[in-house]
Amino acid sequence: MKYCSIASGSNGNCYYVAKGDDAVLIDVGINRKHVELRMARAGIDPRSVKAIFITHEHTDHIRGLMVFSKRYQVPIYLTRGTYEGARLPLPSHLVHFIQPDDRIKVGELTVLGIPKYHDAKEPCSFVVTDGKVNISIMTDLGRGCDNVKHVIQHSDVLLLESNYDTEMLLSGPYPYYLKNRIRGGWGHLSNAEALQVFVENKTIQTETSDFGTPVWRKQYGGACKVCFPSSL
Ligand SMILES: [Zn+2]
User: Fold this and answer.
1) Is the per-residue pLDDT at 16 higher than 90?
2) b/e for 122-152, b at 16 or more Cβ within 10 A?
């Protein structure tokens, strides 16, 4: 399995996961040209992308979606709510509607939808697995809910986004409504909340990604189990 954070943070999110000839993108939140430039730097051929999965409709997750998917004719998997919220004239032959807790096979990979709390119409996170290794992309989380805990417990590679320091947010320049939006359970996890939910549910080993975004890698003594009950 290969993983690359092509872009992360409020300027745009785009994550690449591959096994052999099968690759998927989670979100395309930077424009097509920048996706291609960053892929080239990482030695990734954009034509290897077999499917795009979209977590939700906020601009920093869909900015490059239309142009990239059209150029490479890549199928797009997203919930109806995300589609409606995105308001993009996506080519209908590329659009596939999913439930937020769906499992979709893409070659050797299976992509699992994980419903989440966030101020979007029908958002979900995604775990990509080959049946042995689980790679989890968990951004834009309003709460460290049971789904988040379950994913942390079963991830081998985990990207868990935290968004702010609570004291800095409260004393900072944002208007009151925006402060509440960010920390109100439907926005983002604070650094402290993310650390707490991670520490309480992690298994063994931690690393930090090259991109400054925390990525926590866990190792199991034996084979990794894929254990996502349908109730997720
Ligand atoms: Zn968002």
Assistant:
1) yes
2) bbbbbbbbbeebbbbbbbbbbbbeebbebbb
Rounded to the nearest 10 degrees, what angle do helices 32-41 and 65-72 cross at?
70
Taking only the tens place, the pLDDT of each residue in 165-212 is 888 989 999 999 888 888 888 999 999 999 999 989 987 554 444 433
Helix (H, G, I), strand (E, B) or coil at 192: helix
Domain ranges of the chain: 2-217
- Ligand 1 center to 109 CA (angstroms): 25
The neighbouring-strand residues paired with 160 are 138
CB 59 within 8 A of CB 31: no
Rounded CA gap, 229 and 54, in Å?
Answer: 22
Q: Which fold has domain 2-217?
A: Metallo-beta-lactamase; Chain A (3.60.15)
Q: Where are the beta strands (DSSP E) in 123-218?
A: 124-129, 134-138, 157-160, 207-208, 214-217
CA 94 to ligand 1 centroid distance, Å: 23
* Residue 219: burial class (beta carbons within 10 Å; 0-12, 13-18, 19+): exposed
Confidence (pLDDT) at 204: 59
> How many A from CA of 173 to the centre of ligand 1?
20
- C-alpha 10 to ligand 1 mean position (Å): 9
Identity (one letter) of the amino acid at 35?
V
Task: Please give the backbone phi and psi of residue 113, each rounded to the nearest 5 degrees, phi first.
Answer: -80, 140
